[in-house]
Amino acid sequence: MSDQNAAQTAATPSPSPAPLRVADAMHPRAVSIDAHETLAGAVVALQELKVKRLPVLQGGKVIGILTDGEVRRNLPPLKEGLTPWAFAARVGRVRVREIMRQPAHTVTPETPLATAIHTMLERHIGGLPVVDEGGALQGMLTLTDVLRAEARTPRLRWGAVEQHMTAGVVTTPAGAPAHEAAAKLKISRLRVLPVLEGDVLVGLLHETDLAEALDRASADHGDTVMGGQFFLQGQVARDLMRPPTGHLRGGAPMRDALSQMLTLDVHGLPVVDDDGQLLGVVTISDVLKTVLGQQPG
User: Running DSSP on this structure, what letter comes out for residue 24?
Assistant: First the structure.
């Protein structure tokens, strides 16, 4: 090969990888629930399968989606003091089709993954049913599925964590009631709440920590989806937090945030400076916006 041809070959850029599709990230074995199933059946499915959402089917097609939030809102409140018989009768009369979200936001296997990510971010939803052209369920796409797919894709440097994190962080004192901390998580939608003693970061409270606390309470109180505030009574943030082992320095590459979230199975990580002072939180939404090339703001 001549020097000129070699130079031309070296100057030719390698082809860019094809954009990811939903089919590249989804898991094909999605669990679902029939529209005619009862609320009691939904409780059992959500808890035994340890999922937060179920596509709702009628005639084999997706017509809605049921989340643990809808289930909680439609269970009789504990303060009514119903007997077990009355409680069972009440939840047995409610059908999934009466409380599901509809229409469900769906994607197909051929939908560009970037389009699915946009939908998740704009709608603040953690999962999308994957359907064929006729509306039949083909699988499910979750936020974690997206992270796994992106982690397998070679990419240029995204920049430092400090450039993409969420600043102005919502925090909680270690001694704050756990139900107040849970409310902060829900309102902020940050998925992780730094726990402070004074100005020092001493732990992290994740959505999953709260879910596990509710699961533990079920051994004594029955169905855990019945009321977080009741089950968290008497507990403080310190009781449910994790040690602050999962954190990032402000100058760390943004790709490290993606890797740590997958390794720790969390959707948010605190960002600290060299002295351990809290700078912000990098959330799964921040990671996904970086994937899409969106500027923080």
Answer: G
